[in-house]
Specification:
With 203 residues, the chain is mostly helical. The protein has a domain of 59 residues. It is built from eleven helices and no strands. The protein is elongated, with a radius of gyration of 25 Å. Keywords: Repeat, TPR repeat. This is MamA. InterPro entries: TPR-like_helical_dom_sf, TPR_rpt, Ycf3.
Length: 203
């Protein structure tokens, strides 16, 4: 009799596992998606970027026509510093929906990080066509053109960024540096004065 209790416990444990798998396999598609996204959020909170990628890859295989899933896979790959895989995920987003601004933008950001500024400009131009009033996209285009030493275009995009968002401190800072590069010192100083005003207001 003394062996009976452990076997009963094992039997119940196996039954519980089987029931658990049955519940997973019988999940509705949206419930399955929600379950994996919950796992992704939990892994992200732990800083476990590799698990985030793994879970998003599962979702991408199950939802091959969902651009948001591939976008989140791209974000997970970026956090895991796997930039090649991130670009592939964002390109898949665009293949499904070429109007997905954030995918074009993220490709541009990765190329800026990798100092591939001409390629960054190409991606960001596609993003700006979709969202011309985005201060952030205008700023990133200004940043890229500055690195390419196309200072006129850089200033134009920085100016557009601060026109859209007059409190965009980083855009004013970058514009000051660009003006300084072309010896427009008074305009550079005006930008820096605006930075100081904003920092005092926001502090």
């Amino acid at each position: 009799m003394y062996l009976q209790w452990p076997f009963i416990k094992i039997g119940r444990s196996v039954k519980s596992m089987v029931d658990g798998y049955k519940r997973i396999f019988n999940l509705e598609p949206e419930d399955l998606k929600a379950m994996y996204l919950k796992k992704v959020r939990a892994a992200d909170l732990r800083g476990d970027s590799q698990s985030c990628v793994k879970y998003m890859q599962v979702l991408a295989s199950k939802y091959p026509n969902d651009p948001e899933i591939f976008y989140q896979l791209g974000i997970a790959c970026e956090k895991a510093s796997n930039f090649g895989a991130a670009i592939q995920a964002y390109q898949q987003v665009i293949a499904i929906n070429d109007q997905f601004t954030k995918a074009h933008y993220r490709i541009g950001i990765i190329h800026i990080r990798q100092r591939e500024f001409e390629t960054a400009v190409n991606a960001l131009k596609k993003a700006i066509q979709l969202e011309p009033e985005s201060a952030e996209i205008n700023f990133r285009l200004g940043q890229s053109f500055d690195r390419l030493k196309n200072y006129e275009k850089a200033i134009a995009y920085f100016a557009k960024a601060v026109e859209i968002d007059p409190k965009f401190i980083q855009a004013f800072k970058n514009m000051a540096l660009t003006y300084d590069s072309i010896d427009e010192h008074k305009k550079a100083l005006d930008c820096l004065k605006r930075v100081l005003e904003l920092e005092e207001t926001l502090s």
